[in-house]
Design a protein that fits this description.
Blueprint (H helix, E strand, L loop, with lengths): L3 E6 L6 H13 L4 E4 L16 H11 L4 E4 L10 H14 L4 E5 L4 H8 L6 H20 L3 E4 L4 E5 L11 E4 L3 H10 L2 E5 L4 H17 L8 E10 L3 H7 L10 H4 L5 H10 L9 E3 L2 H14 L3 E5 L5 H11 L1 H13 L1
Parallel strand pairs: 1-2, 1-11, 2-3, 3-4, 4-7, 7-8, 8-9, 9-10, 9-11
Antiparallel strand pairs: 5-6
Length: 338
Protein backbone atom coordinates (compact mmCIF):
# COMPACT_ATOMS: atom_id res chain seq x y z
CA UNK A 1 0.00 0.00 0.00
CA UNK A 2 1.15 3.54 -0.74
CA UNK A 3 2.49 5.62 2.13
CA UNK A 4 0.28 8.54 3.20
CA UNK A 5 1.48 11.35 5.48
CA UNK A 6 -1.12 13.29 7.41
CA UNK A 7 -1.91 15.91 10.01
CA UNK A 8 -3.51 15.37 13.43
CA UNK A 9 -6.04 18.13 14.08
CA UNK A 10 -5.92 18.48 17.87
CA UNK A 11 -9.45 19.42 18.87
CA UNK A 12 -8.39 19.51 22.53
CA UNK A 13 -6.04 22.41 21.81
CA UNK A 14 -7.80 24.68 19.30
CA UNK A 15 -11.22 26.14 18.64
CA UNK A 16 -13.15 25.02 15.54
CA UNK A 17 -12.32 27.91 13.19
CA UNK A 18 -8.62 27.94 14.02
CA UNK A 19 -8.43 24.16 13.70
CA UNK A 20 -10.14 24.34 10.32
CA UNK A 21 -7.62 26.91 9.09
CA UNK A 22 -4.71 24.71 10.17
CA UNK A 23 -6.22 21.69 8.40
CA UNK A 24 -6.72 23.63 5.18
CA UNK A 25 -3.08 24.66 5.48
CA UNK A 26 -2.12 20.99 5.91
CA UNK A 27 -3.74 20.19 2.57
CA UNK A 28 -2.03 23.21 0.97
CA UNK A 29 1.40 22.03 2.16
CA UNK A 30 0.88 18.66 0.48
CA UNK A 31 -0.22 16.35 3.29
CA UNK A 32 -2.57 13.50 2.41
CA UNK A 33 -4.74 12.96 5.50
CA UNK A 34 -6.36 15.05 8.24
CA UNK A 35 -7.56 13.13 11.29
CA UNK A 36 -9.34 14.85 14.15
CA UNK A 37 -9.60 13.83 17.78
CA UNK A 38 -13.14 13.49 19.11
CA UNK A 39 -13.25 14.82 22.68
CA UNK A 40 -16.19 15.92 24.78
CA UNK A 41 -13.69 17.40 27.23
CA UNK A 42 -10.03 18.36 26.68
CA UNK A 43 -6.92 17.26 28.55
CA UNK A 44 -6.63 20.75 30.06
CA UNK A 45 -9.35 22.92 31.60
CA UNK A 46 -7.51 26.23 31.24
CA UNK A 47 -7.32 27.14 27.57
CA UNK A 48 -8.69 23.77 26.42
CA UNK A 49 -11.14 23.21 23.57
CA UNK A 50 -13.47 20.44 22.44
CA UNK A 51 -15.34 21.27 19.21
CA UNK A 52 -17.79 18.61 18.07
CA UNK A 53 -15.96 16.39 15.60
CA UNK A 54 -19.02 15.44 13.53
CA UNK A 55 -20.00 19.04 12.89
CA UNK A 56 -16.39 20.05 12.31
CA UNK A 57 -15.73 17.28 9.78
CA UNK A 58 -18.64 18.53 7.68
CA UNK A 59 -16.96 21.93 7.52
CA UNK A 60 -13.63 20.30 6.66
CA UNK A 61 -15.21 18.23 3.88
CA UNK A 62 -16.62 21.40 2.33
CA UNK A 63 -13.38 23.36 2.76
CA UNK A 64 -10.95 20.86 1.23
CA UNK A 65 -10.68 19.03 -2.08
CA UNK A 66 -8.11 16.29 -1.77
CA UNK A 67 -7.19 15.19 1.75
CA UNK A 68 -8.66 12.07 3.32
CA UNK A 69 -10.53 13.03 6.50
CA UNK A 70 -11.74 11.14 9.57
CA UNK A 71 -11.66 10.60 13.31
CA UNK A 72 -8.79 9.40 15.42
CA UNK A 73 -10.69 8.35 17.28
CA UNK A 74 -14.42 8.43 17.99
CA UNK A 75 -16.17 6.16 20.52
CA UNK A 76 -19.44 4.88 18.99
CA UNK A 77 -20.66 3.13 22.11
CA UNK A 78 -21.60 5.44 24.99
CA UNK A 79 -22.26 9.14 24.33
CA UNK A 80 -22.89 8.28 20.68
CA UNK A 81 -25.35 5.63 19.54
CA UNK A 82 -23.84 3.59 16.70
CA UNK A 83 -26.89 4.17 14.49
CA UNK A 84 -26.31 7.93 14.68
CA UNK A 85 -22.61 7.42 13.90
CA UNK A 86 -23.63 5.38 10.84
CA UNK A 87 -25.93 8.20 9.73
CA UNK A 88 -23.32 10.92 10.33
CA UNK A 89 -20.51 9.16 8.47
CA UNK A 90 -22.88 8.11 5.69
CA UNK A 91 -23.56 11.82 5.20
CA UNK A 92 -19.85 12.70 5.34
CA UNK A 93 -19.08 9.96 2.84
CA UNK A 94 -21.73 11.36 0.49
CA UNK A 95 -20.30 14.87 0.87
CA UNK A 96 -16.71 13.76 0.20
CA UNK A 97 -16.87 10.39 -1.55
CA UNK A 98 -13.71 8.33 -1.38
CA UNK A 99 -11.98 10.53 1.20
CA UNK A 100 -13.65 9.77 4.53
CA UNK A 101 -12.74 7.17 7.15
CA UNK A 102 -14.29 6.39 10.52
CA UNK A 103 -11.71 5.79 13.24
CA UNK A 104 -13.20 4.18 16.36
CA UNK A 105 -11.98 3.07 19.78
CA UNK A 106 -13.17 1.94 23.19
CA UNK A 107 -13.02 5.40 24.73
CA UNK A 108 -11.85 7.23 27.84
CA UNK A 109 -13.74 8.20 30.98
CA UNK A 110 -12.69 11.84 30.41
CA UNK A 111 -15.11 12.00 27.47
CA UNK A 112 -17.82 9.48 28.20
CA UNK A 113 -18.62 9.76 31.93
CA UNK A 114 -19.27 13.54 32.09
CA UNK A 115 -21.50 13.44 28.99
CA UNK A 116 -23.63 10.50 30.06
CA UNK A 117 -23.48 10.61 33.86
CA UNK A 118 -23.11 6.84 33.75
CA UNK A 119 -20.45 4.51 35.03
CA UNK A 120 -17.49 3.99 32.70
CA UNK A 121 -17.46 0.27 31.81
CA UNK A 122 -14.45 -1.98 32.21
CA UNK A 123 -12.18 -2.89 29.31
CA UNK A 124 -13.95 -6.15 28.43
CA UNK A 125 -17.38 -4.57 28.17
CA UNK A 126 -16.01 -1.65 26.16
CA UNK A 127 -14.44 -4.04 23.65
CA UNK A 128 -17.70 -5.97 23.35
CA UNK A 129 -19.64 -2.75 22.86
CA UNK A 130 -17.20 -1.62 20.20
CA UNK A 131 -17.40 -4.90 18.29
CA UNK A 132 -21.19 -4.80 18.37
CA UNK A 133 -21.35 -1.16 17.33
CA UNK A 134 -19.08 -1.79 14.32
CA UNK A 135 -21.31 -4.72 13.32
CA UNK A 136 -24.42 -2.52 13.49
CA UNK A 137 -22.80 0.38 11.59
CA UNK A 138 -21.66 -1.94 8.81
CA UNK A 139 -25.10 -3.55 8.59
CA UNK A 140 -26.78 -0.14 8.34
CA UNK A 141 -24.47 0.82 5.48
CA UNK A 142 -24.89 -2.51 3.70
CA UNK A 143 -28.62 -3.25 4.01
CA UNK A 144 -31.70 -1.24 3.09
CA UNK A 145 -33.82 -2.01 6.19
CA UNK A 146 -32.20 -3.17 9.38
CA UNK A 147 -33.61 -4.96 12.40
CA UNK A 148 -30.85 -5.50 14.92
CA UNK A 149 -30.96 -6.90 18.42
CA UNK A 150 -27.63 -7.14 20.18
CA UNK A 151 -26.39 -7.32 23.72
CA UNK A 152 -26.13 -3.53 23.98
CA UNK A 153 -27.84 -1.97 20.93
CA UNK A 154 -31.07 -2.36 19.01
CA UNK A 155 -32.45 -0.98 15.76
CA UNK A 156 -35.90 -1.42 14.24
CA UNK A 157 -36.75 -0.89 10.56
CA UNK A 158 -33.73 1.40 10.36
CA UNK A 159 -32.50 2.85 7.06
CA UNK A 160 -29.57 5.13 6.29
CA UNK A 161 -30.88 7.05 3.29
CA UNK A 162 -27.82 9.12 2.44
CA UNK A 163 -24.49 7.36 2.07
CA UNK A 164 -21.79 6.83 -0.56
CA UNK A 165 -21.90 3.91 -2.99
CA UNK A 166 -18.84 2.41 -1.30
CA UNK A 167 -18.98 2.15 2.52
CA UNK A 168 -16.72 4.39 4.56
CA UNK A 169 -13.64 2.43 5.78
CA UNK A 170 -13.65 1.72 9.52
CA UNK A 171 -10.30 1.96 11.32
CA UNK A 172 -10.15 0.39 14.79
CA UNK A 173 -7.74 1.74 17.39
CA UNK A 174 -5.93 -0.76 19.60
CA UNK A 175 -3.42 -0.50 22.41
CA UNK A 176 -3.76 -4.10 23.57
CA UNK A 177 -3.79 -7.56 21.96
CA UNK A 178 -7.53 -8.24 22.14
CA UNK A 179 -8.47 -4.94 20.53
CA UNK A 180 -5.85 -5.60 17.84
CA UNK A 181 -7.49 -8.96 17.10
CA UNK A 182 -10.82 -7.17 16.79
CA UNK A 183 -9.24 -4.77 14.29
CA UNK A 184 -8.03 -7.77 12.34
CA UNK A 185 -11.47 -9.40 12.35
CA UNK A 186 -13.59 -6.34 11.56
CA UNK A 187 -11.49 -3.30 10.61
CA UNK A 188 -10.54 -1.87 7.26
CA UNK A 189 -7.69 -0.20 9.13
CA UNK A 190 -5.87 -0.18 12.46
CA UNK A 191 -4.79 2.87 14.51
CA UNK A 192 -1.98 3.15 17.05
CA UNK A 193 0.09 5.95 18.61
CA UNK A 194 3.85 6.46 18.71
CA UNK A 195 6.39 6.65 21.51
CA UNK A 196 5.94 3.19 23.03
CA UNK A 197 8.05 0.04 23.25
CA UNK A 198 8.69 -1.29 19.71
CA UNK A 199 7.87 -4.79 20.97
CA UNK A 200 4.33 -3.61 21.71
CA UNK A 201 3.80 -2.66 18.07
CA UNK A 202 5.15 -6.02 16.92
CA UNK A 203 2.72 -7.76 19.28
CA UNK A 204 -0.21 -5.64 18.14
CA UNK A 205 0.51 -6.23 14.46
CA UNK A 206 0.90 -9.97 15.09
CA UNK A 207 -2.46 -10.01 16.86
CA UNK A 208 -3.98 -7.97 14.06
CA UNK A 209 -2.81 -10.61 11.58
CA UNK A 210 -4.09 -13.42 13.81
CA UNK A 211 -7.53 -11.84 14.03
CA UNK A 212 -7.66 -11.32 10.28
CA UNK A 213 -6.58 -14.85 9.44
CA UNK A 214 -9.15 -16.36 11.81
CA UNK A 215 -11.80 -14.35 9.99
CA UNK A 216 -10.36 -15.53 6.65
CA UNK A 217 -9.22 -12.04 5.76
CA UNK A 218 -5.94 -10.89 4.23
CA UNK A 219 -4.08 -8.88 6.91
CA UNK A 220 -2.03 -7.10 4.25
CA UNK A 221 -5.22 -5.37 3.08
CA UNK A 222 -5.78 -3.72 6.48
CA UNK A 223 -4.22 -0.23 6.50
CA UNK A 224 -2.06 0.55 9.50
CA UNK A 225 -2.19 4.11 10.78
CA UNK A 226 0.01 5.58 13.49
CA UNK A 227 -0.15 9.00 15.11
CA UNK A 228 3.47 10.12 15.35
CA UNK A 229 4.09 12.69 18.03
CA UNK A 230 6.71 14.99 16.56
CA UNK A 231 7.86 18.40 17.75
CA UNK A 232 10.01 19.75 14.94
CA UNK A 233 11.20 23.35 14.91
CA UNK A 234 14.30 25.03 13.51
CA UNK A 235 14.70 26.35 17.06
CA UNK A 236 15.48 23.31 19.20
CA UNK A 237 14.47 25.03 22.43
CA UNK A 238 11.08 25.88 20.94
CA UNK A 239 10.60 22.25 19.92
CA UNK A 240 11.34 21.09 23.48
CA UNK A 241 9.16 23.69 25.24
CA UNK A 242 6.17 23.02 22.99
CA UNK A 243 5.83 19.50 24.38
CA UNK A 244 4.89 20.71 27.87
CA UNK A 245 1.39 21.66 26.77
CA UNK A 246 0.77 17.96 26.10
CA UNK A 247 2.24 16.62 29.34
CA UNK A 248 -0.88 14.46 29.83
CA UNK A 249 0.46 12.19 27.08
CA UNK A 250 3.50 11.49 29.23
CA UNK A 251 1.37 10.05 32.04
CA UNK A 252 1.26 6.32 32.56
CA UNK A 253 -2.02 4.44 32.16
CA UNK A 254 -2.21 4.09 35.93
CA UNK A 255 -1.75 7.83 36.47
CA UNK A 256 -4.61 8.88 34.23
CA UNK A 257 -6.99 5.91 34.36
CA UNK A 258 -10.35 6.92 35.74
CA UNK A 259 -9.73 10.69 35.68
CA UNK A 260 -12.84 12.23 34.11
CA UNK A 261 -12.30 15.87 35.10
CA UNK A 262 -10.06 18.14 32.94
CA UNK A 263 -9.21 20.20 36.02
CA UNK A 264 -7.76 17.13 37.75
CA UNK A 265 -6.11 15.88 34.55
CA UNK A 266 -4.43 19.25 34.12
CA UNK A 267 -3.15 19.18 37.70
CA UNK A 268 -1.67 15.68 37.39
CA UNK A 269 -0.18 16.46 33.97
CA UNK A 270 1.45 19.68 35.17
CA UNK A 271 3.07 17.76 38.02
CA UNK A 272 4.73 15.60 35.35
CA UNK A 273 5.50 18.26 32.73
CA UNK A 274 9.17 17.29 32.77
CA UNK A 275 8.24 13.94 31.20
CA UNK A 276 6.16 15.33 28.32
CA UNK A 277 8.94 15.21 25.72
CA UNK A 278 9.46 11.47 26.17
CA UNK A 279 6.43 10.70 23.96
CA UNK A 280 7.59 13.04 21.17
CA UNK A 281 10.29 13.07 18.54
CA UNK A 282 11.86 16.40 19.54
CA UNK A 283 14.38 17.83 17.10
CA UNK A 284 15.59 20.74 14.99
CA UNK A 285 17.35 18.34 12.59
CA UNK A 286 15.25 17.13 9.60
CA UNK A 287 17.42 14.04 9.10
CA UNK A 288 16.99 13.03 12.74
CA UNK A 289 13.21 13.34 12.46
CA UNK A 290 13.17 11.14 9.35
CA UNK A 291 15.48 8.60 10.98
CA UNK A 292 13.20 8.33 14.03
CA UNK A 293 10.04 7.93 11.92
CA UNK A 294 11.44 5.15 9.73
CA UNK A 295 11.11 2.37 12.35
CA UNK A 296 7.33 2.80 12.16
CA UNK A 297 7.43 2.37 8.38
CA UNK A 298 9.61 -0.72 8.85
CA UNK A 299 6.98 -2.12 11.25
CA UNK A 300 4.43 -1.86 8.44
CA UNK A 301 2.57 1.40 9.11
CA UNK A 302 1.39 3.04 5.88
CA UNK A 303 -0.42 6.11 7.28
CA UNK A 304 1.90 8.43 9.23
CA UNK A 305 -0.18 11.10 11.02
CA UNK A 306 1.89 13.95 12.46
CA UNK A 307 0.82 15.27 15.85
CA UNK A 308 2.66 18.51 16.61
CA UNK A 309 2.26 19.96 20.13
CA UNK A 310 2.96 23.68 19.63
CA UNK A 311 0.49 26.54 19.58
CA UNK A 312 1.79 27.86 16.24
CA UNK A 313 0.68 25.03 13.99
CA UNK A 314 1.16 27.03 10.78
CA UNK A 315 4.81 27.51 11.76
CA UNK A 316 5.15 23.75 12.23
CA UNK A 317 3.37 22.90 8.97
CA UNK A 318 5.38 25.36 6.89
CA UNK A 319 8.74 24.37 8.39
CA UNK A 320 7.99 20.64 8.23
CA UNK A 321 6.78 20.86 4.62
CA UNK A 322 9.91 22.74 3.57
CA UNK A 323 12.54 20.91 5.64
CA UNK A 324 11.32 17.38 6.32
CA UNK A 325 8.44 16.31 4.09
CA UNK A 326 10.29 15.78 0.77
CA UNK A 327 12.98 13.64 2.39
CA UNK A 328 10.43 11.81 4.54
CA UNK A 329 8.37 10.83 1.52
CA UNK A 330 11.41 9.62 -0.37
CA UNK A 331 12.80 7.61 2.53
CA UNK A 332 9.40 6.19 3.54
CA UNK A 333 8.71 4.98 0.00
CA UNK A 334 12.14 3.31 -0.10
CA UNK A 335 11.59 1.55 3.23
CA UNK A 336 8.07 0.46 2.31
CA UNK A 337 9.27 -0.93 -1.02
CA UNK A 338 12.06 -2.78 0.77
Amino acid sequence: MAIRIGYKASAEQFGPRELLDFSIEAERTGLDVVSVSDHFQPWRHQGGHAPNALVWLGALAASTERVVIGTSVLTPTLRYNPSIVAQAFGTLGALAPGRVFLGVGTGESLNETPATGGEFPGAKERRRRLAESVKLIEQLWREERVDFEGEYYEARRATIYDKPDDPVPIFIAASGPLAAKLAGRRGDGFISTSGKDPNLYRELIANLAEGAEKAERDPSQIRKMIEIKVSYDRDGDEAFESCKLWSALGLSHEQKAGIDDPVEMERVADENADKAHHRFIVSSDPDEVIEKIMPYVDLGFEDLILHAPGDDQKRFLDQFAADVLPGLREEADKHAAG
